[in-house]
Amino acid sequence: MKVSIVGAGLAGCEAALQAAGLGIEVDLYEMRPAKMTPAHTTGLPAELVCSNSLRSDLPHNAPGLLKEELRRCGSFLMKAADNCRIPAGGALAVDREEFSRTVQKMLCRQKLITVKKEEVTEIPQGKVIIAAGPLASGSLADSISELTGSGSLYFYDAIAPVVDFESINMDRAFFQNRYETDGDADYLNCPFTEEEYYNFVRELKLGNRVSTRDFEKEIHFQGCMPVEAIADSGDMSLAFGPMKPVGLIDPKTGIRSFAVVQLRMENKAGTAWNLVGFQTKLTYPEQKRIFRMIPGLENAEFVRLGSMHRNTFINSPALLDCRMRLRTDERIMFAGQITGVEGYIESIASGYLAGILVAGTDTLPSADTAIGAILRYPTAAVTDNYQPSNINYGLFPPLKKKPRGGRRARREAQADRALMSLEKWLESQVFLFSKYT
């Protein structure tokens, strides 16, 4: 059997590697670098564009649980991420370029995968996995829209800026992880006085922004709200959001600052640092002017400025069956962010599922696993006002009996239940389980 996979992003690469590992011949199509998207900068597979973080790696929260499940399932991209990780406290962050090159090597080593550097403008014949991502080319998006009989939905995603470490004023900034004052810290903090904070918020709200095109309605995914859009909702919204000072004590003053901007390492060399939670659609000149108001970034040199791009996704619950196939044409599957799963790790999970499903796995992971939640959200959610979602415990079925100990105890119980269910499912999938033992 042979399958065509459209898109060599996170979902497409994971799907290709899983399918090929199970004996399926794969043609993997990628239009970059011949045709670029508004967000990508290279032609490498599995390029990370919004952040280098795959979010929390703590085992009892939902993103951490999903990562643990993927590791147990033998996810190729999780293995690549673990091999390319850089310090980020309790989060899993990677060196972007090293991660993409590692995935590229994995693809090259798999003899059943043929990478085709060309744009796909029409749906290929035979079995197909469409993993074109939220930045599918216009021609392909038109083909998908024609195929599904409905226009594509869309929302906006924003990319945070990155600064050169050497340009940071360390007389103002300090290293510290939230709630941790001892040991090596992975985050760099820029503290604000009350006056500095309000001046900064004022300029954010007044700053010039990239205009939305006349024919596009502006919709932001809640998890990637531009920092200026957060500021628009109230002067203190940032201080209770990405700039919250809780758990951080400035060692120079011994007190908690009024607000704090955190930076996270972008590469293993530590030469570039990402402004955490500072996705933006400010114009480039305004980004430089306003972000240099951040204490410690007065003379910041920007390795990358933030940008804004339109992301497309289909109304998956109305279009896909429980195995991610198009209801009107079962030879066509969809995977990744184009289905409405949001986030890097969620895209990897969706690609994993597509790869094993196209290879013929007979039973599906249960709804109380994180992978099962990623499968069921885009295929069984309410179709009215369908919106992208990250993995979260709200997607899981409730516990039959709530444990004592509050929210943390419930989360631990849900995680324990998920891992037990996953192990039972893996044991039932002989051809999968034997591959990794």
Shape, per Cα inertia axes? globular
* Secondary-structure element series: EHEEHHEEHEEHEEEEHHEEHEEHEEHHHH
In CATH, the topology of the largest domain is named FAD/NAD(P)-binding domain
Unreliable stretches covering 5 or more consecutive residues: none
Look at the structure and give the mean pLDDT.
91
Tally of contiguous helical segments: 13
CATH architecture of the largest domain: 3-Layer(bba) Sandwich
The tally of strands reads 17
How far the N terminus sits from the C terminus, by CA atoms, comes to 25 Å
| Strand content bin | 15-25%
Give Rg in angstroms.
22 Å
Roughly how much helix do the residues carry, as a percent range?
A: 25-40%
How would you write the strand order of the largest sheet? 6-2-1-7-17-16
- The CATH superfamily of the largest domain is known as FAD/NAD(P)-binding domain
Protein structure class: alpha+beta
Give the C-level CATH assignment of the largest domain. Answer: Alpha Beta
